[in-house]
Structure formats: structure tokens, C-alpha cells
Amino acid sequence: MLTSTKELLEVAQKHSYAVGAFNMYNLEGVKAVVKAAEAENSPAILQILPHVLDYGGSSLIAMFLEAANSAKVPMSVHLDHCDNNATIKTVLEAGVQSVLADGSTLPFQENLTFTREMTDIAHAKGATVEAEIGRISGTEDGMTVSEKEAKMTDPEQAKEFVAKSGVDFLAVTIGNVHGKYHGEPKLDFDRLAKIRQQVEIPLVLHGASGLPANMIHQSIELGVCKFNVNSEVRKKYLEFWREYGQTDSKTDLLDCQKAVTAEMEKIIAEKIRLFGSAGKA
Ligand code: 13P
Ligand code: ZN
Ligand code: NA
Question: Which protein residue has the closest C-alpha to ligand 1 atom 8?
């Protein structure tokens, strides 16, 4: 059933597990999330990126909402990484109940202004906002901040940002990366612990593809209750079609659609178990 992301994350935070938020592009992906969540009796979040929305339009949002609503487990629909006011307003109008107002490429004050404005709009509709801080650019105290360090979330800034923006969830940057980790992932758990001390709202970790189980568990212990997953599932989808494209024998497209859905479902179910949300619906 369609539930708000806020409700899903508040329950997760209270019971120390995390909910997977899966970026999806089409019906097969959406079905894979619903089937995995139902099979694991778990809540889940269907995520959509703005450029996917530009391609699919309002019928695609309607499909996401309908899938969440008819699921046997609580599910929400969330707009991921959006820096565009108009798109945020459009999806809120369409019934999406949470958005990532992503001002992370902006300087702190501009990010704060943008997030505050989007949060006011969302709250007026009973919706909620995730924000991201952590790309402190340039120099600090006259010293150049290394690129890696420059991207990390500062705990004190996080506190100020959350208090002044009124945002509902905070995406942190602690060494997590979108897509592949080059070498072993290195997450700054001391930083995450300090952020947790400063900020009470649910924390979000992007770039969950490629993170080992111990890091997932440690992140949850330190307050992460939403993990964003995209590339591992997307990779599986692409691998499937590449393999099927090699042979002429499989021509029933619907059979292929069902098979690719089942492949994605397996990975999503694994993530759900890893995040500790299995059995929590
Ligand atoms: P991955 O592609 O690393 O899973 O990251 C997904 C993400 O953060 C989407 O917002
Ligand atoms: Zn992300
Ligand atoms: Na990743």
C-alpha cells in the first residue's frame, strides 16, 4: 500500500533497520521491487530520477504510484536527486510524497535557501524532503581542502542546515560514491557518528551498490535508515539483455520481460535482507 517515506523511515529508525530505495526506470524494474518486497515481507521505496521522468512523463509516475499502492507491503515513491523547482512541484502535484531537493552542488547558503523553499512547498502538501550537504568546495581557513575531504559532510554544518531548512531526512557524504567503488570502499564512520550526535532526523546513504555487509550494518548502527541502490540492479538488467541478445532462440518478449524481472528481484531481495527490513512490513 502507498505509504509515506516519512512513515517508513520513522519506523525503521525506531527499530534500527534501513529501508532500501531502488532507482527504477520501467515496469520490469518496478515489478521487481514490488515482488522482492512482498516476498521478503518488507517495506521498500521506489525511486525515480528526474531524467527518467522527463522521458516517461506523468504516465510513468502514475505507474510507480499505482504499483506502490497495490503492493501488499508498505511502499513509497520518491523523487531522487532533483535540483529543479518545477520538477519537484510537478511530482508533488502528481501525488509523490517525498523528494530529494538536491542543492549539494551549491554553496552552503544557497543550498540552504533552495532546500528551505522546497521544504516549505512539500510540507504544505503533507510531503517530505531529503536534502544533501557535503560538497564544501574551494578552500577553508586559507588552506585547500583535499578533493575527497571537500566532499564530506561536516557535522556542525549538518546541524545548522537541518535546523534552518526544516528538512526531514539528510543524505550524508562520508566516502560513499555513486556506482563502482575504486578499490575497497572507505567510509568515515567517525564522521557519521558525529553527524548522528548533531542530527536527529533519519540519515540516508547514497551509493549503496558495492558496499560490503559489515559497512551496511555499521552505517545502520550509526543512524542510516535509507540506502539508495541503483547500479547493481541496473547492471544486472543490462547483463541480462546482452546475454539474451546473443541468441535468436528467445523471441517471446514477454517471457524475456518476466525473466529480467526475476533476475532483478533476486538482487533487490538480497539488499532488503542486508538492510534488515525483511519481515518488517
Ligand atoms: P549506486 O548506484 O551506487 O547504488 O547509488 C545509487 C544512488 O545513490 C541513487 O541516488
Ligand atoms: Zn544518489
Ligand atoms: Na556505489
Answer: 206
Q: What ipTM describes this predicted complex?
A: 0.99
Mutate to test the pocket of ligand 1, among 47, 51, 178, 211 (most ligand atoms within 8 A of CB): 178
Locate cell 583535499: which residue? 146
Tens digits of residue pLDDT in 198-252? 999 999 999 999 999 999 999 999 999 999 999 999 999 999 999 887 777 777 8
**2: DSSP letter:** B
Select from 125, 31, 119, 13 the least CA-distant residue to 75: 31
Alpha-helical runs (H) found in the chain: 5-14, 27-39, 50-70, 85-94, 108-124, 147-150, 155-165, 189-198, 213-221, 231-245, 253-275
Residues 104, 108: Cα–Cα separation, whole Å: 8
Q: What are the structural domains of the chain?
A: 5-231+268-275 (3.20.20.70)
Residues annotated as part of the active site:
80
Ligand nearest to the Cα of 23, by number: 1
pTM of the model: 0.94
141 DSSP 8-state letter = T
Question: Is 207:175 a contact under the CB 8 Å cutoff?
Answer: no
Three cell numbers written together for 276? 534488515
Nearest-CA residue for atom 3 of ligand 1: 207
